[in-house]
TrEMBL record:
Residues 51-211 form the HPP transmembrane region domain. It comes from Lentithecium fluviatile CBS 122367. Residues 236-258 have a biased composition (Basic and acidic residues). This is HPP transmembrane region domain-containing protein. Keywords: Membrane, Transmembrane, Transmembrane helix. The chain crosses the membrane at residues 52-73, 114-130, 142-161, 181-203. Residues 229-258, 300-331 are annotated as: Disordered.
Length: 331
């Protein structure tokens, strides 16, 4: 059992290794600058504003985001027919991420939209199973706990962790108004999250940047070739940290500098056949050879004198250095 536990510690399901191979790269650099700016695109990563301005825009964003969601819901007849709550509580938690911690990976569009959607689907599905029992009202707290736990696991495995999504899963089981909506609740959550993101694109891009990325902070063309872990950098953005190099030895070898063996003895200097040196480099190696030669007894120096630095031959330079007419030497 202990060996199984140790093996399990290294298990890692990374769906992005497969999805990112087919996800197209961002086209935002082709969009006109005024539009691209309000979609989060910047030619260079920008520092975030101080917390005073951050607090102001966070307040404005949260107010407008929730107010617009409530206004749309309360003035849409098809939604009102379902008798929804005045405001879905999980949206309040999302507002903190979408308008306050806007650089957090937990608040990026992929996490917000898919995290809420997956959680709502799981919450409604599990609740419907529990409602098959006549004593549902007494055990609905169990349905809420199972829904939240399952949603948390699914979000982690799919790279869509959004903490307010857990609240959506719980509400599907414990809030009578939402429980009665059934699968309609999934559409409500998706629509509300979309409205919140639209408001975020406007408010958060006036003096800040949102989103930092739409799908992933990585170059989707690279993630198909290697496992990459993402972590925050020192500037409030994200950076790539390569993992799994042992699984991609062939790719790494192409990028790793080639090792070159140079052998220096008292008698000669041996170089690879395809390595050409300029005169200055050859003189450095020759001085190293002479230093080694001085350490030999006088009786052996005479025998070595025949193989002196005069054996250096000139070969044409292959584009070495900045001087086009420079010569190279081969020892």
């Amino acid at each position: 059992m202990s060996s199984f536990s140790r093996r399990a510690e290294s298990w890692n399901l990374d769906l992005d290794r497969y999805f990112n191979r087919i996800v197209p790269p961002s086209p935002l650099h082709k969009v006109p600058t005024p539009i691209a700016r309000f979609l989060g695109y910047r030619k260079e990563q920008e520092q975030d504003v101080g917390n005073v301005l951050g607090a102001f825009w966070s307040c404005v964003g949260a107010f407008l985001g929730l107010a617009i969601i409530a206004a749309v819901f309360n003035n849409t007849e098809s939604i009102q027919m379902r008798h929804p709550p005045a405001l879905i509580a999980s949206f309040g938690a999302s507002a903190v991420l979408e308008y306050n911690a806007i650089r957090s990976p937990l608040g990026q569009p992929r996490n917000a939209l898919l995290g809420h959607t997956f959680s709502a689907i799981i919450g409604v599905g599990i609740t419907k199973l529990f409602r098959l029992r006549s004593d549902f009202e007494k055990i609905k707290w169990i349905a809420g706990a199972i829904s939240c736990g399952t949603a948390s696991s699914v979000m982690l495995l799919t790279g869509t962790v959004h903490p307010p999504g857990g609240a959506s899963a719980v509400l599907a089981a414990t809030s009578p108004e939402i429980t009665e909506m059934g699968w309609y609740f999934v559409g409500i959550v998706m629509w509300g999250t979309t409205l919140m993101l639209i408001v975020g694109l406007v408010i958060n891009n006036i003096q800040r940047q949102f989103p930092v990325y739409w799908w992933t902070p990585l170059d989707v063309r690279k993630t198909g070739r290697a496992d990459v872990e993402v972590g925050p950098d020192a500037k409030g953005g994200f950076e790539e940290r390569d993992e799994g190099k042992h699984d991609n030895d062939s790719d790494d070898e192409k990028e790793r500098p080639r090792a070159i063996a140079i052998t220096i003895s008292a008698n000669k200097v041996t170089l690879p056949e395809d390595l050409a040196l300029n005169r200055e480099e050859a003189e450095i190696l020759e001085r190293l050879r002479l230093r080694l030669r001085k350490g030999y007894p006088d009786s052996l120096r005479g025998a070595m004198s025949a193989r002196s630095s005069t054996e250096v031959t000139m070969v044409p330079s292959h584009g070495m250095g900045s001087d086009s007419d420079a010569s190279a030497v081969r020892l």
